[in-house]
Amino acid sequence: MYASREDIGYDFGDDSKVRSKPIKPNPNIDGGWAWMIVLSSFLVHILIMGSQMALGILNMEWLEEFNQSRGLTAWVSSLSMGITLIVGPFIGLFISMCGCRRTAIIGGVLNALGWILSAYAANVHYLFLTFGVTAGIGSGMVYLPAVVMVGQYFQKRRALAQGLSTTGTGFGAFLMTALLKYLCAEFGWRNAMFIQGAISLNLCVCGALMRPLSPKDLREKHVVRSDSEENRGKALSHSTETIKSNGGLGEEPEKKEEAANEEVLGSVQHIEIGGKSGSGRSMYGLRLFKTVSQLTVTVRKGFALWYSSYFGAASLFTNRVFVAFVIWALFAYSSFVIPFIHLPEIVKQYNLSRQDNVFPLTSIIAIVHIFGKVILGIISDLPCISTWNVFLMANFTLVTCILTLPLMQTYVGLAVVCALIGFSSGYFSLMPVVTEDLVGTKHLANAYGIIICANGISALFGPPFAGWIYDITQKYDFSFYIAGLLYMVGIIFLVIQPCIQKKQPREKSTEEAQV
């Protein structure tokens, strides 16, 4: 079917001019420091996504402590998960202005602060602000840079690198579930959150490892990528027609913006030279003015790039396949999150606590999730395998498991379904790869920010919806059925839209031939 943006028939920009230039690739691309970036991203996934997957433990503690409904209490976990992802587009603006490293370090401090303040919660509504909003925003400021940096440093092994880094989610869910269980049993949930906040400060170290590539290195990576795709026989098809019909990338606004920025800085330097020849007392003010001007230029340039990606002529939403991808993301993530939040309660209802204490079902999902990400990443990197096809097959498997889970009422049956959920949800490692294939490296940060924002909306409403359905029916069955059906709708959009995208250029070329 469809493996990349070339196959789908959509691309941003034309690199035919630079493709002919011989280049020497940076040794850090696909090697060297790139593996430190993978390590940093791996640790970020452990500390952020792994901790969020273990929130079912704290959710039970909050139910007992505050004696609120399941629907209201579930909002604490869903706010944290949802906001982490929803802030993605706005974090893209931070990355454009400050870079991935600074954004991640600031986010690490915010995340730790949210955990620590939550230890002093007097009610559920206090947790909404401290854990849901504060820790959630901090998590988002670390998570998006961790994903984007791996995409920037890898070309040939992108799927494998993303697979290895995102296995941190599985490791983290397994480790954090055991850790939070132990801390809550030994010290209580309040002290457990305080300790977890101290551990989360390690996110600042992860951010410090995110050494940025120079613009020259990024251009070389893009050229190498173009050459490798050409050698593999994946030439662009119908991209010119599609860009003309959907709106292409214009270089003129960027050139005008750069010219305006250079004019501002040039005028500042001219004033500074004049100040040197005049009086030395105003030099401090001139330096301050120059610093503010440079900061203004940086903010303007970052905002212009961010704004053009969402609302300009080069808007990502002119890519119809990308729009279908966003619609899929709106329904997909809740189907994965609901089991993690509510499985401990389901196990308690089925009187399976003894078996679950020996080997928790959430830990089964987490462990198999690790292997799923790595294996699906390796398979997708094979020359004869389409990443898009692997992505779709994993989605079909996951939605089948979600619809089947309520039918299982024994520990063995639930364990088998949870193992399949863990393996098929390994497609998360392919999401950055598929996104980059759709929009290109240059737009990856903003595009992936939109995708995880849609996932965040799904995560925000999924667990409370499941809790609300339980409060009405005293069962979780309908929660899984409704979530699975909505997920299926999103998958159908993914399957249908690329077929339409391919069909339209063919029909247009046929009409032109007839004329």
Structural account:
This protein has 515 residues and is mostly helical. The chain folds into two domains: 26-230, Growth Hormone, Chain: A, CATH 1.20.1250.20; 316-503, Growth Hormone, Chain: A. The protein is built from 23 helices and no strands. The chain has helices at 5-8, 16-19, 34-53, 55-66, 70-86, 88-98, 100-118, 124-153, 158-187, 189-200, 202-208, 215-231, 239-246, 252-277, 283-311, 320-349, 353-358, 361-380, 387-404, 411-424, 431-439, 444-473, 477-514. The longest helix is centred in the last third of the chain and has 38 residues, at 477-514. The protein is globular and about 75 Å long. The protein starts with a helix and ends with a helix. Residues 1-23, 224-257 and 506-512 have low confidence and may be disordered. The chain crosses the membrane at residues 33-55, 75-96, 103-122, 128-148, 160-180, 192-210, 321-341, 361-379, 386-405, 411-434, 446-466, 478-496. Keywords: Membrane, Transmembrane, Transmembrane helix. Residues 221-233 have a biased composition (Basic and acidic residues). Residues 37-502 form the Major facilitator superfamily (MFS) profile domain. InterPro entries: MFS (IPR011701), MFS_dom (IPR020846), MFS_trans_sf (IPR036259), Proton-linked_MCT (IPR050327).
